[in-house]
C-alpha cells in the first residue's frame, strides 16, 4: 500500500512539474504576444461567442480614445455599434482587407475608414468560439509610405551625386597627344598626382581642366576613393556653403530630412575639385581657407566639428593675380591653392592633336549610336585651320554636329557648322576670325555698360550673364569702368586684345 502511494505521489509530482512547465511556457508566450500587440501600429481585436471583447491592443484603444481595462470583458457593441465580428462567427465568414466605415463621431483621430481583415477562430473540435480582426489605419500606412518616399529620395540624391562625381573616368593614358608641349604638361601633372598637395589647374575655357583633374585622381593614391566636383559658378552664393559643408536637419524650411552631406563629406578619403575657383565669394574663401588649415568642417546648423581627409584640386580660367590686386580673391588662399600649378595649353597651341581627338570623339559617337562613320581628309584640314576659341569642348560639339547632320558614311566639310565653314571659306585666317569675335563681344559689353550708366550689375543682367563673368570679360578686354565714365579707354589697342 505504501509503495503504491509513493508511486502515485511521484507520478503526481511529475505531472505537476510538467503542468508547471507548460504554464510557464504559456505565460511566456502570452507575454510575447502582449508585447507584440503593444508595439504594432495596426489595430487588433478578439471577440468571444458571448459578444464580449477578449483582447484589444493599444493601437486600437488609441484609435477609439479608450482604456484597455474599460473594454475587456464588455460587449463589443458598446465599443463598435456597427461591428461585424458577431456576423463573422454566425456566418463563418473570412474577409481580407475589407473597408469598414465607423460613425464619424466614434473615433478619437477623426479617421473613420479603415481596412479590416476578419476571420473566425475554431477549437480542436472545429467549433467557432471567437473572431479576430486586424485593422490597418491609413494614417500609419501614409506615414510609412511618406517615410519610404523620403528615404528613397535621399538614396536617389546621393546615388546621383556619386554617379556624377565619384567615378574618375579618365587617366593620363586616355589623353591622346602628339604635342611635345602637352606631353610635358601631362608628365608634370602625373608627378604632382603622387603627392597630397593642392594642385591649381589653369587654362582657357574648354581645354579639359576637369578631365585633367580626373586623370590626376586616377594616378594618385586616392584612386579608390570618391572624386567629387563642384563648379563654383553654378551654385548661387547663398547656397554654396550648404553645398560644400552640408547642413543639419531642421536648419532650413523645406530642407532634407536628416540634413544633407556636403561635398567635403562626400569626398572624404578622396579628391575634391573646385572648378571656377576664381568666382568663389570672398566670404566663402575665408571658410575654405579654414578647412584647408584645420582639415575640419562644420555643417550649417551643426554644433560639432567633422574631421575630413580630402585632397583639393582647383581650376580656373581667370587671372587670379589680378583678382588679388582687385581684392576679390584672398592672397593667403591663393598661396594655399597654388602649391602645384599646372597650365593646360589651348587647342590652338597643340593643333597636331586635333586628328587624334577627332577620331576619339567619332569612335565614342559610333559606339553610342551603332554607326560606322569616318571623316574625310579634307574635313580634317578644315578643322586644323580653325582657331578653336572654345578649345576641346568646341571641337567635341562640332564633331557631334557633323555626326548628326550626315546621312552618308563619311563626314564631309559641308557637314561642319555653318559658322566654321563661313570663317574658312571667306578666307579669314583663324587669327582673323578670333579677333573678329573678340571685337564684337567687346563692343557689345561696352554698349551695355554705357546704356546702364556703367552699372555692372544692370549690364550683366541685360547681357544675361553672371556679374562675375562680366568682370572677367572686362578684365580680358581691358575695359576700365573709371576710364569709361570719363570717356577714356573706349578704343582698343592691339596689345590689349587677347593673344590668339
Give an overview of the whole structure.
With 500 residues, this protein is α/β, with parallel strands linked by helices. It folds into four domains: 2-140, Beta-Lactamase; 167-345, Rossmann fold (3-Layer(aba) Sandwich); 350-427, Helicase, Ruva Protein, domain 3; 433-496, Orthogonal Bundle (Arc Repressor Mutant, subunit A), CATH 1.10.10. Helices cover 49% and strands 15% of the residues. It has helices spanning 2-39, 58-64, 68-71, 76-79, 85-90, 138-165, 180-193, 209-218, 237-245, 263-266, 282-294, 320-325, 331-337, 354-369, 377-385, 391-405, 418-425, 430-451, 456-463, 467-476, 481-485; strands spanning 43-48, 53-56, 95-101, 113-122, 128-136, 199-202, 227-231, 246-247, 260-261, 270-275, 296-297, 306-307, 310-316, 340-343, 374-375, 410-411. The strands form five sheets. A five-stranded antiparallel β-sheet has the order 2-1-5-4-3. Helix 7 (180-193) packs across helix 8, helix 18 packs across helix 19 (456-463) and helix 19 crosses helix 20. It is elongated and about 125 Å long.
Amino acid at each position: 500500500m505504501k509503495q503504491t502511494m509513493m508511486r502515485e505521489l511521484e507520478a503526481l509530482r511529475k505531472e505537476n512539474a510538467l503542468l508547471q512547465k507548460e504554464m510557464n511556457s504559456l505565460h511566456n508566450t502570452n507575454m510575447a504576444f502582449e508585447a507584440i500587440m503593444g508595439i504594432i501600429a495596426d489595430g487588433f481585436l478578439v471577440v468571444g461567442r458571448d459578444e464580449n471583447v477578449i483582447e484589444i491592443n493599444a493601437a486600437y484603444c488609441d484609435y477609439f480614445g479608450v482604456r484597455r481595462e474599460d473594454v475587456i470583458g464588455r460587449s463589443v457593441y458598446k465599443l463598435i455599434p456597427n461591428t461585424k465580428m458577431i456576423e463573422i462567427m454566425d456566418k463563418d465568414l473570412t474577409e481580407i482587407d475589407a473597408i469598414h466605415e465607423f460613425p464619424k463621431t466614434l473615433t478619437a483621430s477623426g479617421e473613420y475608414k479603415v481596412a479590416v481583415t476578419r476571420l473566425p477562430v475554431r477549437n480542436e473540435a472545429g467549433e467557432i468560439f471567437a473572431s479576430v480582426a486586424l485593422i490597418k489605419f491609413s494614417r500609419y500606412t501614409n506615414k510609412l509610405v511618406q517615410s519610404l518616399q523620403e528615404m528613397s529620395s535621399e538614396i536617389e540624391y546621393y546615388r546621383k551625386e556619386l554617379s556624377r562625381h565619384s567615378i574618375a573616368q579618365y587617366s593620363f593614358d586616355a589623353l591622346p597627344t602628339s604635342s611635345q608641349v602637352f606631353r610635358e604638361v601631362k608628365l608634370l601633372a602625373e608627378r604632382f598626382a603622387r603627392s597630397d598637395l593642392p594642385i591649381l589647374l589653369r587654362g582657357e575655357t574648354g581645354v579639359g581642366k576637369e578631365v585633367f583633374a580626373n586623370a590626376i585622381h586616377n594616378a594618385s593614391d586616392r584612386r579608390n576613393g570618391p572624386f567629387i566636383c563642384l563648379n563654383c559658378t553654378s551654385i548661387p552664393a547663398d547656397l554654396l556653403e550648404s553645398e560644400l559643408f552640408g547642413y543639419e536637419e531642421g536648419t532650413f524650411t523645406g530642407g532634407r530630412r536628416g540634413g544633407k552631406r556636403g561635398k567635403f563629406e562626400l569626398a572624404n578619403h578622396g579628391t575634391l575639385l573646385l572648378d571656377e575657383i576664381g568666382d568663389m565669394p570672398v566670404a566663402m574663401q575665408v571658410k575654405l581657407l579654414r578647412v584647408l588649415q584645420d582639415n575640419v568642417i562644420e555643417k550649417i546648423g551643426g554644433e560639432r566639428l567633422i574631421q575630413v581627409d580630402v585632397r583639393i584640386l582647383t581650376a580656373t580660367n581667370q587671372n587670379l593675380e589680378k583678382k588679388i590686386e582687385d581684392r576679390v580673391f584672398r592672397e593667403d588662399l591663393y598661396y594655399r591653392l597654388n602649391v602645384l600649378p599646372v597650365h593646360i595649353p589651348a587647342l590652338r597651341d597643340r593643333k597636331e592633336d586635333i586628328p587624334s581627338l577627332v577620331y576619339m570623339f567619332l569612335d565614342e559617337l559610333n559606339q553610342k549610336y551603332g554607326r560606322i562613320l569616318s571623316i574625310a581628309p579634307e574635313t580634317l584640314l578644315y578643322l586644323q585651320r580653325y582657331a578653336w576659341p572654345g578649345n576641346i569642348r568646341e571641337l567635341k560639339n562640332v564633331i557631334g554636329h557633323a555626326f548628326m547632320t550626315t546621312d552618308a558614311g563619311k563626314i564631309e566639310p559641308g557637314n561642319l557648322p555653318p559658322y566654321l565653314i563661313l570663317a574658312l571659306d571667306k578666307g579669314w585666317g583663324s587669327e582673323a576670325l578670333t579677333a573678329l569675335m573678340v571685337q564684337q563681344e567687346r563692343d557689345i559689353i561696352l554698349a551695355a555698360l554705357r546704356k546702364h550708366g556703367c552699372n555692372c550689375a544692370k549690364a550683366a543682367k541685360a547681357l544675361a550673364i553672371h556679374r562675375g563673368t562680366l568682370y572677367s570679360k572686362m578684365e580680358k578686354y581691358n575695359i576700365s569702368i573709371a576710364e569709361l565714365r570719363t570717356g577714356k579707354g573706349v578704343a582698343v589697342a592691339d596689345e590689349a586684345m587677347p593673344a590668339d
